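Our consortium's second objective concerns turning raw sequence data into structural hypotheses that experimental partners can test. To show how far this objective has progressed, the report includes one record in full. It was chosen at random from the queue rather than selected for favorable results. The single chain below, 198 residues long, was entered without modification.
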Amino acid sequence: MKLILFFNGWGVSKEIFSPLKTKNYDIKIVDLEESLDFEILEKYSEIFIIGWSFGVYHASKTFNSISNSKMEKKIKKTIAINGTSSAIHKKYGISPVIFNKTLVTLSESKYSEFMKNIGLKIEKSNDWKIHRDILENFSKQYSETPSIFEYSIISSKDRIFTSRCLLNFYKDSIYKIIECNHYPFERWNNWEEILDEF
């Protein structure tokens, strides 16, 4: 059995990714505030990890916390999309000043504005206070961690993780630049198309 393990970014519900289908893989989406139960991975012979936005950091921190050679052999491909394991960083991620300003000033209208900036149209959200709490907890628990990703996809129109910061981070690895926003998933019809980018 094969699994695509997707680490989601901040503020976006799992349902947003429902248009992406697959016939060949099980899909497990891990939100930013969630911990991964490694026991559910035991039944899979092949695991493909995709991280998006802050999910790149989340995936890296999650898998750096274990030392399991059997698990490492199962991981066949790792793709980062518009994010780094240095998520809050002036050169490699989101500037600490901008991150803190976002956290302090977050409101329903600011949340909607953020969604627009990433490439999604979410006019109103009753959950913005929940998203603020998640972001605050992320800030408290944040510490830089090595990247687990072999490949990276970089959006040239990204207004969150700028392409310059992403290129600074991934300049010595295998990457692909695409003409998309921070949220680039309209580019793909299914999960396999993401894996096939490399």
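The partners drew two points from this record. The domain at 2-195 is CATH 3.40.50.1820 (Rossmann fold). The CA atoms of residues 118 and 182 lie 5 Å apart. Both points have been shared with the crystallography group to help prioritize constructs.
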